Amino acid sequence: MDSRAASCTCGQLRIEVQGEPLGVGLCHCLACQRRTGSVFAALASFAAPCKVLGTATEYVRTGDQGAKFRFRFCPVCGTTVFHTEEGCEQSSVSVAVGAFADPSFPAPQDSVYDCRRHSWVRLPDGIRSYDKDPT
């Protein structure tokens, strides 16, 4: 099984995942915009287990539907590298696509919170879009 590694800007925090992503998506919610400092977040979900190297600082945020998400970021450079949903830590992890620094990474299949998408952001052809989070 192929592995992939993602890391923060300074390299102190890394995560290694196995196999292909379970899914790749974009989130345009205001919380992700604030968290990333960008106009959307690009995330890839991978099946557990994963291997984390380095030290992470954590921030827990409650989503619109009550789920709690634990974001891990580097305490040195501040880069958000991955997050898990509380209660699902043993099954999957979501990794920031940019942390792989791989332009050939698979394209997103889904886009959520399109009600918050900036009007000038164009989605790839064939992507499924949802006004809110469909889960």
TrEMBL record:
CENP-V/GFA domain ranges (all copies): 4-114
Keywords in alphabetical order: Lyase, Metal-binding, Zinc
Pfam family, one: GFA
Domain of life assignment: Bacteria
Keyword Transcription: no
Protein family: Belongs to the Gfa family.
Name of the molecule in the record: GFA family protein
Organism from which the protein derives: Dokdonella soli
